Each structure stands twice: as C-alpha cells, then as structure tokens.
Amino acid sequence: MIPTITAFERSPDRGRGLARDMRVRWALEEVGQAYDVRLVPWPEMKQPAHRAVQPFGQIPTYEEGDLVLFESGAIVFHVAERHPGLLPQDANARARAIMWMFAALNTVEPPIVERSMAFLLEREKSWYAERLPPFKDRVRVVLHDLSVQLGDADWLDGAFSAGDLMMVHVLRRLEGSGMLDEFPGVAAYVARGEARPAYQRAFDAQRAVFAGNASTG
Ligand code: GTB
Hints:
Layout: E1 4-8, H1 21-31, E2 36-40, H2 48-51, E3 61-64, E4 67-70, H3 72-82, H4 91-122, H5 128-150, H6 162-172, H7 184-194, H8 197-211
Parallel strand pairs: 1-2
Antiparallel strand pairs: 1-3, 3-4
This protein binds S-(P-nitrobenzyl)glutathione (GTB).
C-alpha cells in the first residue's frame, strides 16, 4: 500500500527542504518506498479535517491504510522499522540508532529551533541583540559535543542509519546561520547526508512543490 504524507502547500522555507516533511520523504526514499503527498493549504492547517489527522494542526502526517501517524520522529521510526535499510539488524546497534534519533529530536533540535524562532519572531525587537548570544551559545554546545562524538567517522555509529537521517535534517535548520562553519566536522557530516541519492530525490520532490511542478497523490 502506498502511504500518503502531508506537506505545506506553500512552505515558508521556499523549497529549501527545512520543513519536517523533508525527513519523512528522505526516509521513504532511503528504503525505496513510493509515497503520495497531500499538500495542505495554510487556511486548512488548523481546521477540524486536518486536526483529525494531526491534533496540533501541523505537517507532516503519514497515512497508510488504517494507520494514521503524526510526529516526524514517529513516522521515520515507523518507516525504518517496516523496511530494511535504516536500522541495523544487530539488536544493540539498532537500539543505539534509535537513541540517536531521540538525541537529534530531544537534545539537538530544541536549541536550534529556539535560535531560529528568536530570529523569526524577535529580530525587530529592541532586546534581540542581547537575546541572541545565549541562544547561539546553546547551539554551539551541542555542535561541539556532536563534533567530538563524530571524530573522524562518517556517521554517528557505524553505518548510516535513521539516527543520522534525523540528525542531519535537524542540523540543516542552521543553514544560512554560519554556525555550522564553526564546526567543520559537523558541516562535512551534513554535506555527506545531503550527498546521498535518496536525500537528493527527496529534496527535489519538495522543491518541485515550491516550483509548482510537483506530482501529488
Ligand atoms: N514535532 C512535530 C514533528 O516533528 O512532526 C513538529 C511539526 C512541525 O513543527 N510542523 C511545522 C508546522 O506544521 C512544519 S515543520 N507548522 C505550522 C504550524 O505549527 O502552524 C517546521 C518548519 C517550518 C518552517 C521552516 N522554514 O520556513 O524554514 C522550517 C521548519
């Protein structure tokens, strides 16, 4: 059965692949699962029909027969569990890959999103110049720790996994901030993720929505 995911009809990222449907698309591409996309117009995001699928009125969602999921982490985990390719067979390595998914979402993403929200919502405010440095410092802490973890390795724990997929997409939210350049090992890690053919296919598909030539289900 071909799953259907949701994405912004008009993403505020203007096709840069920063919205969270990108990580779901990427996971589906990595495992070779075809998918349809339902684009949600802004006026419909908080309407009952969409909230019936996503109680917080957000994207992405995932529908596959009777199964309806929201939360990008849960969706990527589901895809990784149902298909080979994103989680190791060895039970301990699998547990660690899942741990890295949680680390991406619970430890690394919050300071990155806080910094980005401060920029989006407060950059015109008089207090912004003072507010920004502590936000950036909190991001630097996780980037430093991540660069130590990575060392010279290509991926976080052996072969590429759903943990790397999630981490790379979380880190991409720093694009344009200049902060990744302070940690060349982490920047190279993100570039490795972006170079994967599955990433490229997912990126092109969401970019086609912005360009107005996407095929949707
Ligand atoms: N925890 C949820 C998940 O992981 O699925 C969070 C989902 C979420 O934040 N969805 C956002 C959304 O629907 C889109 S991805 N927002 C609309 C709303 O809340 O009303 C977040 C996002 C949005 C825009 C950019 N951007 O423009 O760069 C980047 C990321």
